[in-house]
Amino acid sequence: MTKVSSPDPGTVLQICRVHQLITTKTGFGVTCIDKRPADGPVKIKRFGVFGDAVGDTENHGGPDQAVYAYSQEDAEHWSAELGRPIPAGLFGENLRTQGVATTEAVIGTRWRIGTALLEVTSPRVPCATFAERMGEPQWVKRFTQSGLVGCYLRVLEHGKASAGDAIVVEHVPTHGITVGKFFSNPTAEDVLVLQALEASGELVLSGHFYARFPKILAADSSN
């Protein structure tokens, strides 16, 4: 149940990692959301970009959220919307990409970046720390309603990557459920498809899905 993707690669514009630790005003302690572009080749390992860190480990990070990617195309939407630049790393992303789907990536899609192999796992869910970082009115609501959430990835093969590297899409599952679809408009059918694929060994789901499955199924049964 796989297909070969288009041979045209996207590009990694920047690889970002934590620049400084910031004490939040929202009660979550220290955040590592302030990420800036790294110079030269960067190692990418099981828990993400070497030299990066996670402050709120209860809600963020781990192997299924090792790397966060956000596209330049979506950043340009926000730049126009907010009337300000959205430089790489502002959203706390590790990869600023161009020419490859992030929000519209099919769950389970695999990217080759440099010598590392990454797999799309789940959408980014905006939080109070992100809202504090942006300083925009009702930011969580606006970001959620836009649906332009980007994607988390797990690292299947350790490697090195640099800004300017191609993003070669090596594998796209045929189930067609994208990160954006599951974030904005999930259905009971989506849940059953994903569960069946995991049961067959064709897909490994992140914990994000198990937290949402019961609510999606309950909402569907009530309609």
Can you describe what's shown?
The protein has helices at 72-82, 128-134, 139-146, 179-184, 188-199, 207-222, and strands spanning 2-3, 10-18, 22-23, 30-31, 35-37, 42-45, 48-49, 67-71, 95-98, 110-113, 116-123, 151-157, 159-161, 166-173. With 223 residues, it is α+β, with helices and mostly antiparallel strands. It has a single domain (2-180), classed as PK beta-barrel domain-like (M1 Pyruvate Kinase, Domain 3). The longest helix is centred in the C-terminal third of the chain and has 16 residues, at 207-222.
Question: How do you describe this structure in short?
Answer:
The protein is α+β, with helices and mostly antiparallel strands.
The percent range for strand residues is 25-35%
Largest sheet: 7 strands, mixed, barrel
Q: What is the total tally of β strands?
A: 14
CATH architecture: Beta Barrel
* C-alpha end-to-end distance: 31 Å
CATH-defined topology = M1 Pyruvate Kinase, Domain 3
Name of the CATH homologous superfamily: PK beta-barrel domain-like
Shape: globular
| DSSP summary: helix tally | 6
Task: Provide the residue-averaged pLDDT.
Answer: 91
Q: Class, according to the CATH hierarchy? A: Mainly Beta
Helical content class: 25-40%
